[in-house]
Amino acid sequence: MDSDDLEHVIRHGLIGTKFEPVHDNVTGSPAGYVVTPFRRDIDDCDSDRLRESIQQSDHTGDYDSSIRGIALRDAENAGITQNTRLFFSAEPESLVTLEERPDSQARSMILKLDHTSVRDNPAAVLRSIRSARQMGWGIGIRNVGLDLESLSFIPLINPSIVGLHPDVLRIEDRAYLSKLTWLLQSHIERTSGVIFARGVRDERDVDLAEQMGVRLISGPFFGPGTETPEPLEMAAEDYLADHYTRNKQVQGTPYSISQSLGRDPLITAQDLLLEEIRSLLERAKHAGPSAVVVVVHSSDECLDPTIGDLVRSIAPEVGVLASVSGESVATTLPNIMTGPLDSSDPLRNEYGVVVVSSDWSAMITAHRLARPGAERRTDFETYFTTDRFACVDGARAVLSRLASRRNV
Known about the structure:
Blueprint: H1 3-11, E1 15-24, E2 30-39, H2 47-56, H3 60-77, E3 86-90, E4 109-114, H4 115-120, H5 122-134, E5 138-144, H6 154-157, E6 161-164, H7 174-191, E7 194-197, H8 203-211, E8 216-217, H9 254-259, E9 266-269, H10 270-284, E10 292-297, H11 305-314, E11 320-325, E12 350-356, E13 361-368, E14 379-385, H12 388-399
Parallel strand pairs: 2-3, 3-4, 4-5, 5-6, 6-7, 7-8, 10-11
Antiparallel strand pairs: 1-2, 1-8, 9-14, 10-12, 12-13, 13-14
Pfam families: EAL (PF00563)
InterPro entries: EAL_dom, EAL_sf
Organism: Brevibacterium mcbrellneri ATCC 49030
């Protein structure tokens, strides 16, 4: 379906909405509805194909916003109130069109972004997510779990809902499922978020979902989608009440974020700083495919060539690797997320590494001193931290500057 077809379908009222029931696996009660748009004029055009057409169009944001508006009107016409939580698939391009929701309806509407969308344009998406939350919309992530790399942006987004890809319940590899469960539970323990599994077909799927700590489930086992959903009663327990979004605007750089922790920096010689950076990069290499690694260096003048080789060797081993530099060379590195820095950006004067993984985080960041040290050596003010929030903020501070996707 091309862009003209999509516009025709939307303008002529050929988009309908089905509401797929969601079941709370803990309380055993209804937990809301998954909103699934469909074409009224074609029987075999399911919501996944319609979503794919939206993503491939030149007006993704406009079409996604229009379809969401249709669904909201359909929900209102069906008598759905803020007591009934709705789950929408959403594209980041449409977040700029969101309208503010009253406090009484905060987080009753969850927008689930595909896990690949942040990696395609981290700066714009991270800003849009914060804005959407400020206006009373909940943020989730969808289609994770087929590989561990798909979970890498979860600490940076901090979604209230982590939606598994439907095919995760078809996976037979128990070793892989154990790793996936470990990563999911790490997020749940830290943030009180909720795991959501779609496509549940039978008791076997329900059993596997329970073993993985999934709370919300939907699929054929709980009934098909309907155009006439029933409003739900106020739940005795809000499964998202304890989720902590920490919707903080990240300002500054990894260095200034480390300064805000209130600790005194160490005065470090250049050769020792390079070894400390190398040491953290070696640890990061084994952090796993769900890890985020950010490398910052002012110029190659102070960067040992072997460290550059180490950075390149990390790319296939971790989920996200970003490298920014005051020089243009960083933008030529393959398989690494990069982007140009403004000439006045204070990040151009920093060195460091930030690692955010499922079970540990670490950051080293340094700023060259203007005065020479003993024996006229080059000295740096250096901060070390394993504070989880500081490391997440440091990674977001760098990624929010990057408008381009990874190089290939």
